[in-house]
Design a protein that fits this description.
Length: 213
């Protein structure tokens, strides 16, 4: 009788099953992050482009601020609104002190960078740890398989093969979780770096912007 993967999983011990559950969690959550970041980055790019068009064609800071409120996830719009709110909420910055403006810009830029890079750390963790978690399950499964060999007193292929197959399932599961996470992490990191570079260039522009006009 040929054993299916499901049959092999059913025959595994509690430790291997626990490892598979952990790997399943990593895989499901990493795929959720992947789809979330695809959606968010697409919307972020569109909003950045639309905001910048408004920024370069506007008649002043108040008009830009008013129109920026429609862009919920644009890092550039959020940076502009944050600086505008700080400048108009503190009288001691009305003299356009460059040092104060630079500090405010760095503050809000850092916040936006954190939003851009959100959840990338989880993808990196998934990519780097799940193969080792799977390997642990495999080693434990092989140890368990040899224990059963010792009990049965036989080392024939018919006895050894099912136990080894059960153990190797966790290695396959670890790679199944890790490979998409590695690819996604590299791709999203590249996209995030583009957004961050764009944000940095925009923050430099805002340091010379006529806020009081």
């Amino acid at each position: 009788m040929e054993l299916t993967v499901i049959d092999l999983i059913k025959q595994t011990g509690i430790v291997v099953k626990t490892v598979l559950i952990i790997l399943l969690f990593f895989s499901i959550f990493s795929w959720a992050v992947i789809f979330y970041k695809i959606k968010i980055y697409r919307k972020m790019k569109k909003e950045n482009d639309r905001f910048f068009d408004i920024f370069i064609s506007s008649k002043g800071a108040k008009e830009v601020f008013s129109l920026s409120k429609r862009f919920e996830i644009s890092p550039m719009a959020s940076l502009f609104m944050g600086i505008f709110s700080e400048i108009n909420g503190k009288q001691d910055i009305q003299n356009k002190n460059p040092l104060n403006l630079e500090i405010i810009s760095k503050k809000y830029s850092s916040e936006e960078v954190g939003k851009i890079q959100s959840y990338l750390g989880f993808l990196a963790t998934t990519a780097s740890t799940t193969p080792f978690i799977g390997l642990f399950g495999t080693v434990w499964g092989i140890m368990d398989a040899f224990r059963h060999i010792g009990i049965k007193g036989s080392a024939s292929l018919a006895v050894v093969a099912p136990g080894i197959a059960e153990a190797l399932i966790t290695t396959a599961a670890g790679l199944f979780a890790a490979i998409p996470a590695v690819i996604a992490y590299n791709y999203f990191t590249n996209q995030a770096n583009k957004f961050i570079a764009e944000l940095h260039d925009f923050s430099e522009t805002l340091l010379k912007y006529p806020w009081q006009d």
